[in-house]
Amino acid sequence: MFKLIKPYIPYWLLATLVGVFHIAIETAIYLKISEFIDQTIKFGNTDGFTRQVLYMLAMVAVLLPGLILGNYLRSGFVRKCIGSARRNYVRRLFAKNINEFQKENNAAYLSALTNDFEQVENNFLIPAAEILTLVVNFAAAVYLISVANPWILLIAAAVIVINFAVNFFVSRPLNRHNKERSAMFSGYTEYVKEVLSAFHIIKTHDLEKRVRDNFREKSRKIQNKGYLINKIISYTSATMQAILSFSSVGFYVAVAYLSIKGYTTLGGVILVLNAIEKLLWPVYAASDSIPKIFSVKSLYKKIEDSLVNRDEYPETRDYPGLENEITIRDLNFAYGGGEPVLAGVSLRFRKGGKYLLVGPSGGGKSTLLRLLRKYFLPQNGEILIDEIPLKDIRKDQYFANIANIEQNVFIFEDTARNNLTLYKEYDEADIERAIEMAGLKEFVSGLPEGLDTVIYDNGKNISGGERSRIAIARGLLNNAEIMFLDEPFANLDAETAAAIEKNILDLPGVTVINVSHVVFRENQDRYDGRYLVSEKKVTAI
Amino acid sequence: MKELLFKRKKRFFLYLIACFFPIIREFIEIGVFGLLAKAIYVGEMGFFIKAAIVAAIYVPLTFFLQFASRLMRIKYMRDTVFDVRKAAFDNILAASYREFAKRSKETYISNLINDVNIFERDYFINLLNIIYNGGLYAFALIIAFFIDWKMALVLLAISLFIVLISKSAEKRTARLQKELSEANEKMTLNVGNVFNGLEIIKLNNIESKFLESAERVIDDVERRKCHFRFFTESQRNLTYVPGIIASIGLMLYLIFRSKGGGDYSLIMVSVLLANKILYSLPNIFPRLNVLKASVDIYKKITTPLAAGGVREKDLPFRFEKEIRVENLRFSYGEKQVLKDVSFVIEKGKKYLIKGASGVGKSTLVKLLAMTYDDYLGRITADGVEYRAINEKSFNDAIAFVYQEVFLFEDTLGNNIALYKPLPEETLKKAIDGAGLRPLIAARPEGVETAVAENGKNLSGGERQRISIARAIAKSAEIIFVDEGTSALDEKLGREIEKTFLSLPATVISVSHRYYKGVSELYDYVLEIKNGKIRVYSGKDYFASEVSYV
């Protein structure tokens, strides 16, 4: 976790320096006051009062810029650290292999980026930014108090220890109750969710009164539990208040005693009273921050672990281009130690051939596609591109030579053109042709600025059918020698889909592997091979 | 809001009194410190011991004051928040389903749980603090005036100055916070979308562009956050400094005035009072804002959800022959979902609604179930316009089977009958018709078997069968099924589908599943495409140019 801060330590030091300077001024001010008080009392002397006041005003005038400067530097420090940490996180997520990335829900990554890093920021970085300032404040307070009378330090220490002991013993039951409370609430929330889901049933079956009574019971229970907890908290809170009062009053009593006994002057007393804040606040702040820092440590480790690519297989070969065929030989595959999804599968896809893979959901056809795209490596058997094992081929080169048409279409805020070309260079004529073959002409002519129209909101308003056609246009434009299709026609009506399928089947020289559960009778004989993927096996149909 | 607070008048006044206890404690403490200061001045042990005794009495007193104050408050808070929960829930329950369906479920959950919690957390604590700070300020100022009116005036001026600084920054602070929250939303959307598309991005080797844009959005958020933090902290710094000047100045002034011979207790008390005067007022204003916000939340969750025009709807629902849809047009927001659609639902027949996702299948069901009524065209049941039919009589004749089944923590019997008194015969028919007999026979308590919290002790298939049994027990004439078998495996789904097709009622079902040999038995398939509906016979639809594997 220290790595977060390392590059920005100069900022941190600078901020601390400013803080030290600031404390020095405050210390000087307090000492001056103390002096002035004792002088006036001893000598009844009010000469130079005005001079003293002006002198002090001058010092105070320096305080404000000092504070603001320190603030500026500290905020800057935190910003640089957390900004770089977040950017780094996203960078490393991008570096993960596709299958590793997909192991977690996207929501989990997003939550880490927002919530987890917020915790790191609030519970580690911000306290870290202030820590030296706290230490300096503490040191200054110790100095000031010892000027008045060193024995007072001991009394102050006793006060701190007592307060901590009490806080410690009081916080345990409090934590337990808070845990109970949140468990109670998650049950209550579940119940509310269920009731809302059944709203229609409640209305159509005339169950309102019963549900209302039911809800009241549950709410009453929750409020009562909260009340019980609050009652207990009353004891602890009152105790804490008493201890707090005891500390501050006791402290004053002790200081007053010392003053009466002549161990310190009135000026000294005022000095101590001013300085005691400075002594206590850093201690409380530190005791607050230290457990937070520890809690964040394990969180940070969890984040770090999630970014590591687990299966790193050394890819040594360049992609040679497809001359003959893609071979699948004796393939066995299971997800993470579970039941095998595919067993002993052998297939051959000839270059330029068109192949159809059908099968029930969960039968393994999507898995086969993932293996063909190098998301996973088979446990047994192999996939070969012209006798070269796919697992040895460099991913980025392989990817550059395959086209993918998938169900979940990613649309981003940029021109329609860039959404189609995916930032690669193509001739306008090729783009037009792809649009035509994918049935996108109507959509494009409906755009106010044609292909240069910017698509906002990540294409929220684009219908499912249009998204599918965009995916298809992308695939056609790509002009790769291998094309993988994953349920491309799910959102299209039969006529459009059959027409597009025909266009794809017409592509010369492209090896097409289409995974689908919709078969169009008019096109089915144009496939060079049709296979059923089901019950771990692949059979020709 | 007032009605809520005054509902328990006596307890509310006790609550207010309880809020003053901490103020009392503060002033007693100031008195104790003043006494100690005097002891230093007097300089003799006798007086000191008296002062110490007073201090010793004060400490346990604080325990009782704090304890009593809390006890007087928490009961009132518990009961008031309970009222809020009830009011929020009743509010939602009172809405028609049509009104209810206009918002997402998440909104209601937020209202019932998060909003009530926020209210509970924010309202009372801030009320207490406002009274506390306000009381401290007022009483401290009054006492200060009695001590030295010149000093009090200066303190008053400075305290108002400090408040001015805080208030002048309010607008900017709110704006910065809003911009920060918007930037955060934008980042979440952008990065979320990129994550969704990362697979495609990687497959196309275009990572760098998206990485750049993600980094940029993140940076924007960080910049705004830094700015916001710096601004709020600077504001605090600005109010800190006049405070210090005032405290120091006051001390010097008092000492100077007394020329070293004054009564220390007065000096000590004045300094402590000054502290209270300068720092309590600024505390009030932000808290007032939070208080107002929580009152707004209360108002939001207890305002009735739109009444809408009360139409003349009192004709009874009759369905002997058909439900006829003529020239139906319906738009959902900007999107036109149904464009001039006409078809007929014959009594007793089984209908399957098909179409791509998002095309409007659920919308069609909602229209046929009288959930939406802002359509154009005609929907009639045996010649009577839907718009003229009494909703209750319609609801009594229909039933729904959803993917999710809500079960009460009660007996199986009650979950099927849904608390209506059912003759034995009817219950028996429902159990048999839904295929629940084996389940009931297998349990020793039969129909009296308890269903655990939301049916956790039942399988998906069993829950679905209970849902069907409900529909049969109700003798529903029309059963609407929305993805009733989607959560079940192939074999079980097929069984349940067969059950639907065997019922005497008119069944209108939305399903994307295909069960070979069973799905063909639907009398009709209504296929929605591009806002139009084509009617097929079940047999024809599944034998068409497209086959499904």
CATH architecture grouping of the largest domain in chain A = Up-down Bundle
What level of helicity do the residues of chain A show?
Answer: 55-70%
Question: Percent helix among the residues of chain B?
Answer: 55-70%
Low-confidence stretches of chain A: none
Low-confidence stretches of chain B: none
- Mean pLDDT level of chain B: 87
Query: pLDDT average of chain A, as an integer?
Result: 87
Total number of distinct structural domains of chain A? 2
Q: How big a fraction of the residues of chain A is strand?
A: 5-15%
Shape of chain B: elongated
Task: Explain this structure.
The complex is a heterodimer of chains A (541) and B (549). By secondary structure, chain A is an alpha/beta fold. Chain A contains 16 helices and 13 strands. Chain A has helices spanning 9-43, 49-94, 98-101, 106-148, 151-197, 199-204, 208-260, 266-306, 365-372, 395-400, 416-421, 428-437, 441-445, 464-478, 494-505, 521-524; strands at residues 325-334, 340-350, 354-358, 380-385, 388-389, 402-405, 414-415, 454-455, 482-486, 511-515, 518-520, 529-534, 537-540. Chain A has a six-stranded mixed β-sheet with strand order 6-9-10-3-12-13. A four-stranded antiparallel β-sheet of chain A has the order 2-1-4-5, covered by helices on one side. Chain A has a two-stranded antiparallel sheet with strand order 7-8. Chain A is elongated and about 115 Å long. The model of chain A has no long low-confidence stretch (mean pLDDT 87). Chain B starts with a helix and ends with a strand. Classes of the chains: A alpha/beta (541), B alpha/beta (549). Chains A and B meet through helix 1, helix 2, helix 4, helix 5 and helix 6 of A and helix 2, helix 3, helix 5, helix 6 and helix 7 of B. Strand 11 (518-520) of chain A pairs antiparallel with strand 11 of chain B.
